[in-house]
Design goal:
10 helices; 310 residues; alpha/beta; 11-stranded mixed sheet; 31% helix
């Protein structure tokens, strides 16, 4: 059985001890729940892939307590400094060239010469990082390719008995995975839309950012089929067809509505929770159109991958 830990000093200490012993702990972040292991311990990282059923060519995000820790693993740049100063801690991941003598398991980077780094803002994940005092590899705490977990109940529904513990600190505030920016080339590139709108990143850098073509997987969340419920998904639906359930938005009400007022922040926070709920009805899921700006870009990215052929 998977232990359920509370977000108190005892639970945080226990989570850190499990990680130090090579175990797996699902922990809350502001984005989604992450499945954490010591990023330096190859056996522990291999357990992440085993628990999730995750392809080994798909790299993991390394979570760190602060910017100083991040600079130990990624080669820093002016753009990294700008973005870290503006948005860390927070829902932003930076892909940087690996430093020499980094000490990370090669499984974390999937054998690449770059690494994805993030400093989360959630107080419980930050406390665990400080107590553990090391880098934590933490993809989303769900079976690979399936709907991400935004509550401890979601984690247990997919991974109970496969992991050592979960720290239950309620629902995640952002509800979408972090935005990923690649900084391994001359110009920054968007590798995955996420919980930080790209418009804010472009404003901080003073430039427009290109989008990766997806031909090469160099960061998490780039697989064509991902974030998927068991049910088939149909996008841009105005109404549900016979036998379908409808996930609404704005004036399209549906069986559940991501945000009746059309608030994209509310929609992002509700997305995975509502997909879990509709998937439990064992019917095909129709989804209302979502505006493709701000957080809507990240929501639509997740929905396109959820609806992709499997």
């Amino acid at each position: 059985m998977t232990d359920i830990l509370q977000p108190d000093p005892q639970g945080i200490a226990r989570a850190a001890a499990v990680l130090a012993a090579g175990g797996l702990v699902a922990l809350p972040t502001e984005t989604v729940y992450g499945l954490a292991a010591d990023a330096r311990n190859g056996t522990a990282v291999a357990r992440i892939y085993e628990a999730k059923g995750r392809p080994s060519f798909n790299p993991l995000i390394v979570h760190l307590a602060d910017v100083d820790d991040a600079q130990r693993y990624g080669v820093w740049s002016d753009n990294a400094e700008i973005l870290a100063t503006a948005f860390w801690p927070g829902p932003l991941t930076l892909v940087l060239p690996l430093t020499s003598n980094h000490g990370l398991s090669s499984l974390v980077t999937a054998g690449l010469d770059s690494v994805a780094l993030r400093v989360p803002a959630h107080p419980t994940s930050h406390a665990i990082l400080q107590a553990f005092d090391g880098p934590i590899a933490a993809p989303s705490a769900n079976p690979s390719g399936r709907i991400s977990a935004t509550t401890a109940a979601h984690v247990l529904a997919g991974l109970d008995g496969r992991i050592d513990a979960v720290v239950d600190d309620g629902p995640c505030a952002v509800g979408l995975e972090s935005t990923i920016i690649g900084l391994t080339q001359t110009k920054p590139i968007l590798l995955r839309a996420g919980g930080l709108p790209i418009e804010a990143i472009e404003a901080a850098l003073g430039m427009q950012i290109d989008v990766a073509d997806g031909a090469e997987i160099i960061a998490p969340g780039q697989m064509t089929s991902h974030y998927a419920p068991a049910a088939q998904v149909r996008l841009n639906a105005q109404t549900a067809s016979e036998g379908e359930v409808l996930l609404g938005f704005g004036t399209i009400s549906g069986d559940l509505n991501l945000s009746p007022s059309g608030d994209l922040t509310q929609a992002a926070a509700n997305l995975f929770d509502y997909l879990h709920a509709l998937d439990a009805m064992a019917k095909p899921i129709a989804i209302a159109p979502i505006p493709d700006h701000g957080l809507g870009r990240a929501i639509n990215d997740r929905l396109r991958r959820a609806a992709a052929p499997r």
